[in-house]
Specification:
This protein is 2% helix and 43% strand. By secondary structure, it is mainly β. Strand 4 and strand 5 form a beta hairpin.
Length: 212
């Protein structure tokens, strides 16, 4: 999954240095055939909705993510930058592993926390294989090291070509706590062995919930 330059955000009100960011490899490198991800997102069924944000939390790294609608649950690996200034990804050989981009805010802080996941890998579904099925109003839960569980509600879905990735919308500073979930989608380029598009879920922090 290729993400163009200008990854930025705020962490607890402190600016994070802008850096040119490209995801090193497609999130579907090991794909050998077609899948549900080849189908375009039905944007007609994903009408954006307004979601009121809750008061921001203090900084605390995330430990896991759960998305009930699509049956996704994973621990979260911190993802940094490779030596060539590309974003690290979870191993394609462990497609059910999701990761949090550690130069974005922690989930629940002011700004857009960013979580990346494979759509598939090694011929198997990935943690975000069904991300395209999310709709405005769906819930995302993220556990944090401080023991709190941050609840987010999807307010918009998007399918964007990788060559036109909306970096400002994904990484740009926000006035409230936000979340971005990113994977691959759209048609599959067999020559490049990657999908041509990205599926992006935009969600807003609505408060904390009790475990269980």
């Amino acid at each position: 999954m290729n993400v163009p330059p200008r990854a930025r955000g705020s962490r607890g009100g402190r600016a994070v240095a802008t850096a040119p960011v490209l995801v090193a490899a497609a999130l579907s490198v090991a794909l050998s055939g077609c899948s549900a991800a080849d189908r375009p997102l039905d944007l007609g069924a994903t009408t954006p909705q307004q979601v009121h944000a809750a008061t921001a939390l203090a900084q605390s790294p995330p430990t896991w993510i759960e998305i009930p609608r699509i049956g996704a649950r994973s621990t979260l690996l911190p993802l940094g930058l490779n030596p060539d200034r590309t974003v690290e990804l979870p191993s394609v050989h462990e497609p059910m592993q999701a990761g949090w981009y550690e130069f974005s805010p922690t989930p629940g802080e002011i700004g857009p926390a960013v979580v990346l996941g494979h759509v598939n890998g090694d011929g198997e579904d990935g943690i975000f294989a069904r991300l395209r099925e999310l709709r405005p109003g769906d819930e995302v839960r993220i556990g944090r090291q401080d023991g709190q569980i941050a609840r987010f509600v999807v307010h918009r879905m998007a399918q964007e070509p990788k060559h036109g990735f909306p970096a400002d919308e994904v990484y740009g500073d926000t006035t409230d706590p936000q979340l971005r979930l990113i994977t691959c989608g759209g048609s599959f380029d067999r020559t490049a062995r990657s999908y041509r598009d990205n599926i992006i879920a935009f969600a807003t922090f609505t408060g904390t919930v009790r475990s269980g």
